[in-house]
Amino acid sequence: MKIGYEVSFNRYFFKPEQMRPLAEIQADILALERQTEGLLAEIMGGMASSCETKLRVYVDTSVIGGCHDEEFQKPSRRLFERFASGELTFVLSPLVLEELQASPRRVREVLRLVPDTHTEMLEALPQAERLAAKYIEQGALTPRMYPDAMHIANAAVAGVDVLVSWNFKHIVNVHRIRTFNDVNRKMGYGILDIRSPKEMEDDD
């Protein structure tokens, strides 16, 4: 004995829609392709512009003084010529300005060579102080070398591309650089490239 009824919903309720014309579908596909090409061009253009970004270069006081030192003059001045032309961005810290106060006037006036438009002035940040203290704690530098530690920490916290110095004993030193960057990684900062002005000249 059969109880109830079987109702075909497709038979009584389904209303098939008419297919879109092939020409309309093709037009939509072509429009999507054009949009995709535009998006790809935008992405590639952004990548290209990021590749062309100028290097941000932090210099310590030794490089500025080097512009008037016979031994270091040529590479130091060449670096500042690149800052002045806008080829590189000159990154300056309050610590450098503080140290320059005791320097001869001709050394202080080196800063005038670089237009403000090509200069990036850093702020004094407590993160840099903590990082500098960590360098000393890890034995990369001694407490007497705290100003050098602060130059390195300023550059690391600012995320510059290169720190440039003539201080081969405390800063441009392969063994110390390794420790600096070990600390940077542990503290969540990037690897810092540290070079002399001569090395920057060789890369020109």
Structure summary:
By secondary structure, the protein is α/β, with parallel strands linked by helices. Helix content is 54%, strand content 8%.
Break the fold down into its secondary structure elements and pairings:
Layout: H1 9-13, H2 22-51, E1 56-59, H3 61-66, H4 73-85, E2 89-92, H5 94-100, H6 105-108, E3 119-121, H7 126-137, H8 146-158, E4 162-164, H9 174-186, E5 193-195, H10 197-203
Helix pairs in contact: 4-10, 7-8
Describe this structure in words.
The protein is of the alpha/beta class and 204 residues long. It folds into 2 domains: 18-51; 56-203, Rossmann fold (3-Layer(aba) Sandwich). Helices cover 54% and strands 8% of the residues. The chain has helices at 9-13, 22-51, 61-66, 73-85, 94-100, 105-108, 126-137, 146-158, 174-186, 197-203, and strands at 56-59, 89-92, 119-121, 162-164, 193-195. The chain has a 5-stranded parallel beta sheet with strand order 3-2-1-4-5. Strand 4 (162-164), helix 9 (174-186) and strand 5 (193-195) form a beta-alpha-beta unit. Helix 4 packs across helix 10 (197-203) and helix 7 (126-137) crosses helix 8 (146-158). The radius of gyration is 30 Å and the shape is elongated. The relative contact order is 0.13. Mean pLDDT is 86; it is low at 47-51.
